[in-house]
Amino acid sequence: MQLHTIPAHARPREKLLNLGPDALSDAELLAIFLRTGVSGMNAVELAQSLLKQNHTLSNLFNASLSDFCTHKGLGEAKYVQLQAVLELSKRYLKERCQRDTLFSSPDAVTDYLSIQLRGLDHEVFMALYVDNQNRLIKDEVLFRGTINAASVYPREVVKAALKYNAASLIFAHNHPSGVAEPSQADKLITKKLQNALALVDINVLDHLIVAGEQCISFAQRGLI
């Protein structure tokens, strides 16, 4: 079915204008991004096919250029456009974290960290430096690779926190395995960092673990 043969009110663009983006399915939103279909499929059908092949939006968005371009209807230009959209999303969420008080907008923090860390095939350990108004000063990747007690250097974290004049920190890292539950090593690292930062009167507000669609908070679990 050609998209122009679908009733106007049911077409993704018109639907978004009339009802807002929340009313659209993943396939309909993706169809707006794709703009056109391919031979035998309109834009919505192509979007549905891509989601079915990739299982989740995250898999599609985090695909490498070579993997992305293997899909019918996708090429380098669409890959560049998508990466630009994702980067804009990251910057928007970071701006919200910098503008808003973190405790009054916890979803913004979770969303921002999730979009930064979800889908990575290697471990990344981040710190968010927070001022005394609970606003984001800066975020920084501290370590890459296998995260364990030996790879985390509390002295370096303390130096960075003092450099940015942070009142508090939020830590976050990802589990590429997809299992979000904190390990004993995660708990040990958090305690080491808490103890080191306490010596210079800097609090650790939370440690979040991102794994697939899950995000686990140490603070909500009572681990901090």
UniProtKB/TrEMBL annotation:
Single GO MF descriptor: metal ion binding
MPN domain segment(s): 102-224
Domain of life: Bacteria
SUPFAM superfamilies cross-referenced by the UniProt entry: JAB1/MPN domain, RuvA domain 2-like
Keywords of the record: Hydrolase, Metal-binding, Metalloprotease, Protease, Zinc
Biological-process GO terms, alphabetical: proteolysis
InterPro entries, per database record: MPN, RadC_JAB, RuvA_2-like, UPF0758, UPF0758_CS, UPF0758_N
Family: Belongs to the UPF0758 family.
NCBIfam families: PRK00024.1, radc
PANTHER family for the chain: DNA REPAIR PROTEIN RADC, UPF0758 PROTEIN YEES-RELATED
UniProt-recorded name of the protein: DNA repair protein RadC
Source taxonomy: Bacteria, Pseudomonadati, Pseudomonadota, Gammaproteobacteria, Alteromonadales
Gene that this polypeptide is encoded by: radC
